[in-house]
Amino acid sequence: PTEMLQGAHAALSVAPGRDSAEAELLLNVAIAELVDAPAGRALELRAQRIDGLLQLDWWYDAARFDEYSIEEMAEQFPLALIEIT
Question: What is the pLDDT along the chain (85 residues), one digit of tens a residue?
Fold first, then answer.
């Protein structure tokens, strides 16, 4: 189940573009609602608790990912979490 996530990580690690050391992937975890704009990375997964429930928001650069790939990653994400725990 983590093959697609690993593939995205591998593709972004060698992608041309930014020269900075800032990662192209960001897992943004908050204890309150995040209200700021996404950080401009290729992929940002925001995990936050709202009204006692966990909410995951997938922010992505449409020039680097198509909607189908993000949907697949979102579907596989719970399985990847189970696999690493």
Answer: 456 666 766 666 666 555 555 677 777 787 666 667 666 788 888 888 888 888 888 989 999 889 999 999 999 888 888 887 7
* Coil, strand or helix at 19: coil
Report the SS3 class of residue 71.
helix
CA distance 38 to 45: 9
Task: Enter the tokens of residue 35.
Answer: 């209200």
The edge-to-edge listing of strands for the beta sheet with 53-60 is 25-30, 43-50, 53-60
Separation between Cα atoms, residue 49 and residue 64, nearest integer Å = 28
85 by Cβ neighbours in 10 Å (0-12 / 13-18 / 19+) ranks as exposed
Which DSSP letter does residue 22 get?
-
CA distance 73 to 70: 5
